[in-house]
Fold this sequence. Notes:
Blueprint: E1 7-16, E2 19-29, E3 33-38, H1 45-52, E4 60-65, E5 68-69, H2 74-78, E6 81-84, H3 96-106, H4 111-124, H5 140-150, E7 158-162, H6 170-185, E8 189-193, H7 197-203, E9 206-211, E10 214-219, H8 221-227, E11 232-236, H9 243-250, E12 259-261, E13 266-270, H10 277-287, E14 294-298, H11 302-310, H12 317-321
Helix pairs in contact: 3-4, 5-6
Amino acid sequence: MGDEPPILVEGLVKVFGATRALDGLDLRVDRGGVVAVLGPNGAGKTTLVRVLATLAVPSAGRALVAGFDVSKHPNQVRRRIGIAGQSATVDEYLTGRQNLVMIGQLCRLSRGQARARADELLEEFELTEAAGRTARTYSGGMRRKLDLAASLVIRPEVLFLDEPTTGLDPRARMAVWDRIRGLGASGTTLLLTTQYLDEADQLAHQIAVVDAGKVIAWGTPDQLKRQVGGAVVEVTLPAGADLGAAARLLGPITADEVAVDVRRRRVSIPATDEPGLVTRVVRTLDRGGVAVDDIGVRRPALDDVFMALTGHRAVSPEADAA
């Protein structure tokens, strides 16, 4: 791989008829760890993965994976990557073990090597007891784990995961998250697309926000959150309470403007490092005769980042399908 990063994308364009799915996208992913690609539906996330995995030919620009150009040397790229798409692609009529052995042999392992690697992966993903059952009898979480195991048969340098936990229950999601963390810690470079902001927050060392075929923001989760402001002390008042009076009382506490949200019956001020700030807010309102329903410190979430950058809240795959 030399000095090239595992993933390097420069001015990438992909056109489908009149649609520019990728429109001059740039991205550099350094070795090891997990990079999440976030974006609304139609932003170009899946198209990016398909181009990087040599499943689609770019219209313009350059993309290198594991040091090889995806257009000029696709076979070299394929020998070094793994990919798990949005839906499990295992053969329903083969057993878990047979699926992994078949993929191993397709990757030019000997039958003995393929069997040994299959057994390793089945144990690693806690599928040994179900190894002799056909994949059609697996739960959604088990099928997803088998699909992820299949993408690791050749021990890839770079692994692409396209919305790897869509449709899974919380327990199955947690299990897949643990495997992703382990792979990142072991030195594999992972690029995953997701519409679950909590997933990106939990897993990613770096996040690329994509919209209209371009990367519009890049950084760690904390760096992106800081772009939309710091933590705030939020106070929720009872129905009918005087929000204006509460704002006037809190004015002297902060050097900034007191924010008032009439619909949610909230007033808020920026949080500072001042010891006992929340206690001071409560006492100030109490002395002024303003009752409080709830109070707390709220820190920016990735949803706030998504809203600020794209103009709308993120929609989970389940909500989008509803």
